[in-house]
Here is the input.
Amino acid sequence: MSSTGVFWLTIGLCVAALFVAAIVKASADAKVMTTGTDAQKAALIERNAKLAHGELRSQMICPHCQERGKVRCKAVKNKKGISGGKATGAILTGGVSMLATGLSRKEAATEAYCGHCQSTWQF
Here is the structure.
């Protein structure tokens, strides 16, 4: 087998292993939700909320519903306009660099989510 074939076989096996691991994890989570204790269920719900919306900020007040202690925050990157440096690089490389980087610049922001009214906003 050629080195290219071995490379693609390895990549395929890694993808298959990740897929199987995801299925096993989802099955374990489903089992906890059906047969686990209330503490286990609460921990799983908290973990999923933290992954989806970030850490809970107990002192923040939602600007929409005025509820304190229900707001979660996480760092995000937003696409904002066209980056001059990336546009120059695209011209110099004949557009090849656009395939890897795109033209838009990314700007850091914080996304907040209220668990009470389900509002999402950025600042």
Summary: Residues 55-122 form one domain.
